[in-house]
């Protein structure tokens, strides 16, 4: 199902959940297809462009962020833009666990492909016992798994 602008609350939430589900597969090739060929990205301090660069970036990311689980939530939306807050948990190769907190600003072309993504993210080391995201991964968050608001996050 392709969701194209202009967005309303229902379609913005659906677009976000589709992105969350795709990212939780950790399949860089599949995820990259949601972005325009000439997409522009800023992820933390990394700035790059193009779908191929997105695929390369995500491949490296998920080779370092093990047991990655992501939850996204609508913050705001406009005609062809969506703002998202998100958190994800992962462990590194030394078995240290982290929770990343972030905000994304998305802009879409008329075909519904993301042409611009700006992401600001901070990581905090957590104890494994402080994890909140539990589901079989890789794979989408189950419908009955609480979101950020429900978890008080």
Automatic annotation (TrEMBL):
Superkingdom, taxonomy of origin: Bacteria
Alphabetized InterPro entries for the sequence: DUF1348, NTF2-like_dom_sf
Record field: transmembrane: none
PANTHER family, per database record: SLL0781 PROTEIN
Name listed for the protein in its UniProt record: SnoaL-like domain protein
Species of provenance: Rubripirellula tenax
């Amino acid at each position: 199902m392709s969701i194209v602008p202009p967005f309303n609350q229902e379609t913005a939430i659906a677009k976000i959940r589709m992105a969350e589900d795709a990212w939780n597969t950790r399949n860089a090739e599949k995820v990259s297809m949601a972005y325009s060929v000439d997409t522009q990205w800023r992820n933390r301090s990394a700035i790059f462009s193009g779908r191929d660069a997105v695929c390369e970036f995500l491949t490296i990311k998920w080779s370092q962020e093990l047991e990655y689980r992501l939850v996204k939530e609508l913050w705001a939306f406009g005609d062809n833009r969506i703002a998202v807050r998100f958190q994800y948990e992962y462990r590194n190769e030394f078995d240290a666990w982290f929770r990343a907190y972030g905000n994304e600003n998305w802009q879409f072309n008329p075909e519904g492909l993301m042409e611009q993504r700006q992401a600001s993210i901070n990581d905090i080391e957590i104890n494994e016992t402080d994890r909140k995201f539990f589901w079989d991964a890789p794979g989408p968050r189950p419908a009955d798994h609480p979101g950020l608001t429900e978890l008080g996050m």
